Amino acid sequence: MIDAGTQLYGIIGNPVRHSLSPVFHNGALRRLGLNGVYLAFEVTHLAEAVQGIRGLGIRGVSVTIPYKTEVIPFLDQLEEVAAKIQAVNTIANEKGKLIGYNTDWRGALEALEEKVDLTDKRVFLLGAGGAARAIAFGLKERGCRVTIFNRSGEKADALAKELGFVHRPLSELGKPDADVVVNATSVGMHPTGEQSPFPPEALRQGMTVMDIVYRPLRTRLLRDAEERGCRTIDGLAMLARQGAAQIEIWTGKRPDLEEIKRDLRRALEAEASR
Ligand code: ATR
Hints:
By secondary structure, this protein is an alpha/beta fold. Helix content is 38%, strand content 20%. It is built from nine helices and twelve strands. The protein has helices at 21-31, 46-56, 80-85, 104-113, 130-141, 153-163, 220-227, 235-251, 257-273; strands at residues 7-13, 36-42, 60-63, 77-78, 90-94, 97-101, 122-126, 145-149, 166-168, 180-183, 208-211, 231-233. α4 packs across α5 (130-141) and α4 (104-113) crosses α8. 43% of the residues are buried. It binds 2'-monophosphoadenosine-5'-diphosphate. The site of 2'-monophosphoadenosine-5'-diphosphate has 15 residues, from α5.
């Protein structure tokens, strides 16, 4: 029941109409028995939105495209990793003090580590945008040997230099071997769902393949990988985990991951059948 004690949470971004965050956050808050509501805010004026968080005492906010970096100067404090990545996907309002966190890198690492021990692994990271950046910092943390592949070589070069990784042109994808392949590009997402960012002939048994794309859930890349006997990790794994980590930051309680994934799957199935 919504009453005078209800805490408000939400997501700021633009666009946010198709965000799945309200679906699983509200479900998780309810199951934890917390008196909270999570809404989507499509924001055009970021400074005013952040003032609103302060002014209304909004307890916790997710931040998505295009504000993950832009929001930083408006905050009072940054967690160390968020400062390194220079991206915030989570704001906690601690008695008026706004603290920025990044749970994307943790979500990606947890999703990977459920299926594979990352120690000493050779990883191909496809992409050099915001999501790839967060994942790259996680892989660095685990000491992986990472090769970055990206359409824009300049962005790949900059990220590789920053973290001490190497980068290669897309044309070399699949030539050398990898233990783990992570797609952090938008290739394979609706409406170009039949494309894969990775040549299927370079997939082999024993590899672990993770895709951050979740529309569709079974991307071409993941279907190719399954056919060739790879372990696969779909886009909901990271999404659910970064969200669970947000709830933990805001409430101190860890929600049930499987329930979050079920909410997400249901929402995607409903979307697909429309
Ligand atoms: P996000 O925050 O989701 O990572 P982003 O920062 O815009 O979004 O990054 C999108 C990533 O997908 C980039 O690595 C982009 O490559 P460029 O840096 O060359 O733009 C990659 N990408 C998007 N569309 C692509 C396509 N058609 N082919 C190859 N890479 C693509």
